[in-house]
Structures are given as C-alpha cells and as structure tokens.
C-alpha cells in the first residue's frame, strides 16, 4: 500500500516529465524555461492538444476559436449567483458548459476560464463584468476584462509566461483527479471540474495567496527569522516551499522570477522576497537536515500575480486558467487508454462474526 501514491506509476504520458532529482520540467519536448520565455497561451494550448483532437487546426485558428469562446462565455456570467469565491464562480460557470469529449468543449473550457475569473474578481469588488475583446490575445484580454484597459505588452507577456509555466506538470493531484473522471467517460467538463476541485486545496494550488499573507505578516526583513522560527515551532507549513516530487529547486520558480523581473517597478519587492526566501530555506535546512525542502512554483507565482494587479483570493482560479489545457489534454490521453481507473483498498474494519 502507498497511501500518497508517490511510488505508483498510474499513467504513460507524452505531455510532460517532472524530473524531481534534477529539477527539470519538460513539456512535450520543451524545457519549461524556454516555453515560459517564448510561447503565448495559444501556442501552448496548441502544443498540448496536438494529436489528441483530430479537428485541431493551426495556432491562428485556435486563437480565433478561443476568442469566440470568450465572447460566448460572457453570456454565462450573469447567471452565476453572488457570494462565491473565484474558484466556486469558475466551477459554477464551467458546470453550465456542454460535457462531452470534443475539441469544441476543450476550447470552451479554456476560453471561458479568464472570462469567469475576471468577472468573479470584479463581482467581488461590486463592479460589473467587462465584455471580452476577441481581437486580443487570451492573456491581454484577461487583463483587459479586469480593468477595461488594453494592457501593456509587457503585462500580457508576463501573464502568458505564468499561464504557460503552469500549463502541465505530470500526474499532480488535480491532473490525476481529471484523468480518473475522464476514464469514466464523464466528459471534459466533468474532468476539468474535478481538476479545479483538487487544485483549490492549500497543499496544491491554494498556496500562493497564503504566500503573500506570510510576506505581509513578516512585514520587514528584520522580522523574518523570528517570524519563521515561531511558525515552525507551531509546526506550520511555510507556503511556497517543499514539493512532493522535486528534491531540488522547482524549475518553475526561476521561470516565474525571470518573468517578474521583466515587469517594471518590481525590483524592491523581489529583493524583499529573496530575503524571506533565503531565511526560510536556511531554517528549513536546519529543521529537516535529511529532507531537502526548496522553493516551489507558488512563491514567485504569488509575486508575479500580485504585480499584475490580481487579488490573492483569485490566484487559484488564475492557476486553473493555465492548467485547464493540461487537464483537458490529459483527459483525452486517458480516454485514449480506454481503461477505467479503479485502484483497490485494503479493508481494516470489523469483520462479521462467523456463523
Ligand atoms: N514548511 C514547513 N515544513 C514543511 C514544508 C513547508 N513548506 N513542507 C514540508 N514540510 C515538512 C513536513 O511537515 C514534514 O515534516 P515531518 O516529517 O515532521 O512531518 C517534512 O517536511 C517532510 O514533508 P512531506 O510531508 O514529506 O512533504 P510532502 O511531499 O508530503 O508535501 C507539500 C509536499 C504538500 C507541497 C509540502 O511541502 C507543503 O505542505 N508545502 C507548503 C504548501 C505549498 O507550498 N504547496 C504548493 C506545492 S506546489 C503545487 O502543488 C502547485
């Protein structure tokens, strides 16, 4: 038995390879650093979906279809009730989409994600939603739907870098959840909803908001060591550190730090974050000398999304806006396996008395 399944191989995939010993992430043959620095969301969706949908055409057709999907999704927004957090808002919107295994549904899931997330953020502020502009790229339109302004190219590029960096990551908890649901042939929408439901937990995609809470609580560099020691003495987990697979630094941390550094006006915040990062790593190394705990993707995710003006409450939904292309590609790959995922358990409960 392996309760966290860490030593179980449950799928063959052509999508991504997480090399935890060497800190390398390869996505369909590309190192994540290269994808992050050079690809737009549309390119990456095409890269991940290629071979899984017969009717997938070229990247520019896909970009156009994503724009149309954003426009179609805007009609859903008004039907979603008030009082939902961003993940619940996104999940509620997705639940209204068709639930089949087609490319059209994958595109509707991916295209609707930023529309729903931006609308959730604005609803939370008491502001009306902003209609998408299908002429913009997915990332530029996402930022446009938040503020009503077409963003600077550097901002759209930074959001692209983020969405691309988190598009896929082996058989992580949310992707596994999506594959299990896809294996039942429930449909891509159900698989995506399973994925986002697993993602929202603080041990998976729910960490970056708490990263900023930690930076706020520390406040100034001089407080770092004392604050960290007290948190560790309470056996708290420090958000943005540690990983189930990486035994070295998560390569996505530096891809995102590079994207953050390209945004003007971020050097002071980066300097503060680096100080906290060094202090946390030093203390974790003292506390766990035999277990390498390093910076994971969430630490610089938090800083990058903050710099783009996204509220921390919405960080997990924004993560889903990138990961949706991985979930749908994995779902299709699992469907192609043609095998229901159905592990077994060992019964430890009472047994009926012998007659
Ligand atoms: N802060 C403090 N202690 C930690 C941390 C941390 N961030 N991470 C692990 N530890 C401790 C554990 O408490 C454990 O201590 P113990 O042996 O005294 O119980 C020891 O280090 C070994 O940790 P594991 O439980 O083996 O780590 P695991 O592989 O199960 O967990 C996880 C990985 C869940 C990511 C963990 O490191 C964690 O909780 N990190 C903080 C949350 C976070 O940043 N999540 C985002 C991950 S990236 C992603 O999913 C997108």
Automatic annotation (TrEMBL):
Reactions performed catalytically: oxaloacetate + acetyl-CoA + H2O = citrate + CoA + H(+)
Catalytic residues (UniProt)? 243, 298
| Keyword annotations of the record | Acyltransferase, Transferase
Q: Name one GO molecular function term.
A: citrate synthase activity
Q: Name one GO biological process term.
A: tricarboxylic acid cycle
Q: Indicate the family of this protein.
A: Belongs to the citrate synthase family.
Q: Which NCBIfam families match?
A: PRK12350.1
Q: What is this protein called?
A: Citrate synthase
Q: Which organism does this sequence originate in?
A: Hyphomonas hirschiana VP5
List the top taxonomic levels of the source: Bacteria, Pseudomonadati, Pseudomonadota, Alphaproteobacteria, Hyphomonadales
